[in-house]
Amino acid sequence: MAAPRSTTGSTPTGGAPDSPGPAGTPATRRAVVVGGNRIPFARAGGAYTRATNLDMLTAALDGLVARFGLADERIGEVAAGAVLKHSRDFNLTREAVLGSALSPETPAYDLQQACATGLETVVGLSNKIRLGQIDSAVAGGVDSASDAPIVVSDPLRAVILDINRARTTGQKLKHITRIRPGHFTPSAPDTAEPRTGLSMGEHQALTTAAFAITREAQDELALASHHNLAAAYEAGFFDDLMTPYRGLTRDANLRADTSMEKLASLKPVFGKRLGAPATMTAGNSTPLTDGASTVLLASDDWAEQRGLRPLATVVDAEAGAVDFVHGRDGLLMAGVHAMPRLLARNGLTLQDFDFYEIHEAFAGTVLCNLAAWESEEYCRERLGLDRALGSIDRAKLNVHGSSLAAGHPFAATGGRIVASLAKALAAKGSGRGLISVCAAGGQGVVAILEAA
Amino acid sequence: MSSDNAGVGRSGGAPVPDDGARGGAVPGMPGEGVPDDGASVPDDGVPAVPVPDVPGLAHAAGMPDAPAPDEPAVELATVPALGGLYARGLAGSARAAATRRTTVRAGDLPDTHVVVRDVRPHADHLTAYQHLLGEPGADALPAGFVHVVAFPVATAVMVRPDFPLGLLGLVHVANRVEQRRAVRLGERLDIDAHARDLRAHRAGVTVEVVADVSVGGEHVWRGISTYLAKGVRLAGVRGGGHDVGVDAAATGSSAHNGRAPQNAGAPDLRAEWEPPLPTGRWALGGGVGRAYAAVSGDRNPIHMSALTAKAFGFPRAIAHGMYTASRALADIGPAARGEAFTWDVTFAKPVLLPSNVNVRVAREGDVWRYDAWDGRGRRHLTGSVTPPR
Fold it and tell me: Is A40 left (phi over 0), alpha (psi -120 to 50) or beta?
């Protein structure tokens, strides 16, 4: 089913969805972003070292409940997720709801799409609101790189499961004798892609080299991210988007005083053996981060009944994926492929936006995305377009800082971006914003928001 | 499809005891130069390969469905256990050494076929293989798994008294698999193996061991493994010889004046070669040889530990060649390679364990090519997967 076309100002704002269309196609209403709340992001091993995903998601959720007066409210549905997830957290989001001030009658589900998790919860819940299945929703995400799950080895797991299945003591003892000392070597999650064995940074280094992105351009983007985030804090932009947690009131990774000189002094960490100059450093790559974010979504009626002002409309979204396994495209280039489809469906060009939020997994990721859209060759050969999508006004890019400065708790990044962009659109009072979030597995999600 | 009472072995035969695959690893299996990913599957974590215990050879003269009319066939009741074959191979190698047989004649190769019928791969064996190699858990058997199933039968050819080369010290230099269609779990495989084509090689003599797999009379899979017997001379051939996988044999310079064997479509591995941008990396732990030994049954000591490998002249354990080639096949993936294809590999420098191996797997036209090389740009293997003509 094609997603509905939306034009600013002409979208129906009624409470219930319109009656079904002639072909049984359900008519839709719009879904709006009412607000958001996150906890400050901490560097891994920092302020949230002992906090679990459940702790942090509950904290972010409770902050949202407090800000919008949702205590004991039955929300239509809550969806969130974590990329690094303990097996015991199979119902992470529902458990967070039960631990929060929301009504225990609020249903919840977990979602996982790597780093696109947070944005995808917004997309899925918005669609439910648009279809009239629910009137309100909370989207979110959380990740802890500090409290990452450690698993026992596969052989030990096999033995333990066999012991559990055994019926007699004799059978159990027989299985126990299969255990070997080597089985106790635990395995921690790493950031390597399962099918290539390369870490995300190593993958990006291949793409960065292929697009010949310079060290200087990457450092400039990192510098802008820190300066923009610092300026946003100074302006009080995050005052109604954040709840302090465990002593943190600002993102711990923010370096307001960083400079090109400081960034230039860092040694490359990825792509050191590629033949091309290594350009990726700890300064222009995101650090491992802990944190959580939430976004309150609703129908116009639901918001109006509670005296809440919608900030932005969730217009449309598109997911994409690329074949990075065989080197056909870079791991983090899927958003590049999804974008022309999203734009065409909505009758827009890449230049028709007032804000661009391109997730800074690495500075090179953003710059490779932009370079691909500017390239006639790439757009023709890889995207099947007639011409390049073109360049964007860099003054509209990540204007309140992005992941290089704030950090990137994988599943929490989407919620951070959606809430910040919705607030920026509301402050401007008009216009559109474009989001692109890349994800592991060669995936990406792009989305359009409009001022409500 | 039912996998009930499936087990590699003759129908109605008892499931093979686990010990069947673990018995007495003995030196003498063809060695290879390849890496493997050992990190994930420690030896004991893999179910023992249900390779059956071995009955003796039974002559099947006059079998109505013998592979070809004029070729003698030896039919085995079940797939032989590699452990016993290795023991026999060791004895044969000792015999060959004792007689100082350094020259063989083209006519020395017998036409004997070794046949095992009604082989039914076991579901757990398939699963263990798929998990180790990174193949999806489908009921279609990966081409490399069929190689594993057929390998004991092929080895049985090489340990027969009439096989002119000693098993000890054979080096696996190249491999080709022609898969007509995917073999599926539950199908009953008839496996027919024979040796052919003794050829002069720069560093000795090569032989091709061919394994044919049929299902209900339909020929579905053929594997051609090229082994090099170093230091052996082919009578009547002066100088040169081909040099497939010559790096695997660790020889010096060579000439190209021999006839090309079937597997010799492979590139010249000693030509100047600039490593391309990798598409991935195999982090091969020290236990990779043991892990692949557990699923393949190939417990050649050169793969099992540094200590046992040193006894055969390697500084550390080396990965099985077919492990690395099968990793590359898995990296290409089922959708890209299709169900019918020709899968080639030529082995160069052995992969010492543990090590990180750079890999490139990419499409060129309608052919998938793969290379694996070490940190200094030296190739371990190169190969391709080609769609049927």
Answer: beta
